[in-house]
Design brief:
about 140 residues; alpha/beta; 3-stranded parallel beta sheet; 4 helices; 3 strands; about 30% helix; about 5% strand
Length: about 140
């Protein structure tokens, strides 16, 4: 696998990585061997350049995270869907147990499930924190 240490515009070349998009590489976690090879390449960029400060994943399930836990640098972040309609507590617990920060990419809901004024979860949060309905969710 060829990889460039030039973080300005480099792309990892392989059949399992999409082109670089906005400084992010898109991994396909359904190919475990390829995923591990790509992850090791990202670790080498983390350890050999000052331009890479952290490496993480997005939308990885526990199944996809487990192989990465045995590497020298497990993911620091897993960006996942978390909101009152989909609290994703099992995955959040798994991430916390393995010191992976779970980050919500959709704290107000998704796919037509947005939090509206007067709904129970949002209203309880608003009352508890004396704030607007959506602010405690962010």
């Amino acid at each position: 696998m060829a990889a460039s240490n030039d973080a300005r515009g480099s792309t990892l070349e392989s059949g399992f990585l999409a082109a670089e998009t906005g400084g992010r590489y898109i991994l396909k976690p359904d190919q475990p061997a390829a995923l591990l090879a790509a992850w090791e390449t990202m670790i080498s960029l983390l350890t050999t350049t000052t331009k890479v400060k952290a490496i993480g994943v997005s939308n990885f399930s526990t199944t996809h995270l487990k192989p990465l836990l045995h590497t020298s640098h497990p993911p620091m972040i897993n960006q996942i869907e978390i909101h009152p309609y989909f609290p994703n507590t099992h995955l959040i617990s798994f991430c916390a147990q393995h010191k992976i920060q779970a980050v919500a990419y959709s704290p107000l809901g998704s796919q037509g499930q947005t939090v509206r004024q007067g709904q129970t979860v949002a209203t309880n949060l608003r009352l508890k924190h004396h704030d607007t309905t959506t602010r405690p969710l962010l």
